[in-house]
Amino acid sequence: MNIRNAHAAEIDRLARIWYDGWQDAHAQILPAELARLRTFESFGERLRAALDQVRVAELSDETVGFCMVHGDELYQLFVTAAARGSGVAAALVADAEARLAEAGVATAWLACAIGNERAARFYEKCGWQRTGTVVNPLDTPAGVFRLEVWRYEKRLVG
């Protein structure tokens, strides 16, 4: 497995991973209004805007997942369905945690969609603790969408 910085030339591949993963994990449990705003194009735009914060995972020279950090947040984590259970997600989380700690973040956080039990179990297995629910302001093409999510935290330094 190889984890590296993302490149602009692979935005479409990463957007496909994100879109497909979002449809699989979120489309059925989140408001339909939000699902309509989460288009393939919107994922590409978000990736372009944050490319310097995106790391990708490769297996056998194929990009199979990515992770994005934003400030003190493990902001996005998606892997292909075929790569689930392979250790890719755990490696991406460990990479994100190392980047956050290196940036001086003592306690990192992430938002998990309420009802996404698979992701919740995974984060807990990686040592993250659910601290409650919060309203997360999500940027969308139509403006801010306020969504209640589970908040997870992990102490990284100290």
Question: Could you give a quick summary of the protein structure above?
Answer:
Helix content is about 35%, strand content about 35%. With about 160 residues, the chain is an alpha+beta fold. It has a single domain (about 1-155), classed as 3-Layer(aba) Sandwich (Aminopeptidase), CATH 3.40.630.30.
What are the SSEs and their pairings?
Elements: E1 2-5, H1 11-25, H2 32-37, H3 40-49, E2 54-59, E3 62-70, E4 73-79, H4 88-102, E5 107-113, H5 117-125, E6 129-140, E7 143-155
Antiparallel strand pairs: 1-2, 2-3, 3-4, 5-7, 6-7
Helix pairs in contact: 1-3
What does this structure look like?
The strands form two sheets. Strands 1-2-3-4 form a four-stranded antiparallel sheet, with helices on both faces. A three-stranded antiparallel sheet has the order 5-7-6. The mean pLDDT is 96. The protein is of the alpha+beta class and 158 residues long. The chain has a single domain, classed as Gcn5-related N-acetyltransferase (GNAT) (Aminopeptidase, 3-Layer(aba) Sandwich), CATH 3.40.630. A hairpin with a 2-residue loop joins β6 and β7. Helices cover 35% and strands 37% of the residues. α1 crosses α3.
Distance between the termini: 29 Å
- Overall mean pLDDT score? 96
- Tally of extended strands? 7
Question: Any idea what the CATH superfamily is called?
Answer: Gcn5-related N-acetyltransferase (GNAT)
Number of domains: 1
What fold name goes in the CATH topology slot?
Answer: Aminopeptidase
- SS content category: alpha+beta
CATH hierarchy class name: Alpha Beta
Q: Which CATH architecture?
A: 3-Layer(aba) Sandwich
Number of helices, counting only DSSP H or I runs of 4 residues or more: 5
What proportion of the residues form beta strands (DSSP E)?
35-45%
- Report the major sheet: 4 strands, antiparallel
Summarize the helix and strand pattern as letters. Answer: EHHHEEEHEHEE
